[in-house]
Amino acid sequence: MWTTKTIDSLKDFPVQKGQIISEHLWNEPSVSLMAYGFDKEEELSEEVIFSPMLYYVIKGKARLDLAEEKLILNKGEICLVPASVSRSFTAEEELITLMITLKEDPVIQNLDKEKVLNLFDEIPYEEGRIATKTLVRDDKLNMTLASFSGQQELSTHAAPGDALVLALDGEARIVIDQEEFIVKKGDSIIMPGGIPHSVHVDSLFKMLLIVSK
Length: 213
Known about the structure:
Elements (H helix, E strand, L loop, with lengths): L7 E2 L10 E8 L3 E8 L4 E7 L3 E7 L1 E6 L3 E5 L2 E5 L3 E7 L3 E8 L13 E3 H4 L7 E8 L3 E9 L2 E6 L5 E14 L2 E6 L2 E5 L5 E5 L2 E9 L1
Antiparallel strand pairs: 1-17, 2-3, 3-10, 4-9, 5-8, 5-10, 6-7, 6-9, 8-11, 12-13, 13-19, 14-18, 15-16, 15-17, 15-18, 15-19
């Protein structure tokens, strides 16, 4: 069960023959996350969703059929589909994917719609520095990419709402209310709102950070 302060590995999400397995990971007023495991050629048939949705492939390859084009998403790639766009989603091979529903109409920055992007490539490493790139920002939701190079840290602080970390590369030590967690590529962790936490990196680390206020 994915609960606050529990660390899990998305890349180990179950895939069963002839099935689609799903689990609701996180549900907030402004954002929800569902993990899916697809056997090859299984699909979510054509539908219209009335909120913007991000499709992020953790493992395998998927085909996203939109109204006017077909997109292929490989491991590490993401695609933002606007609200009210018809789509179907098919596993080209065994697939683990994360679907992030933005429940309201947020301010989206630095993230093209209906275009395949690689999250790892969207934020470079800057030697000896921390780099950040805002993808979504409004008064209820922040979504940010961050890269850490060298010995870096985010000192102890508390966020206004729960924060989800998806590790894209490398390794970090995250301290939540004096409890330590080692987070590696493919892992995730929820940092509860109002609880002190910090992030410590010895070498290299990239993450997608989603904060629901």
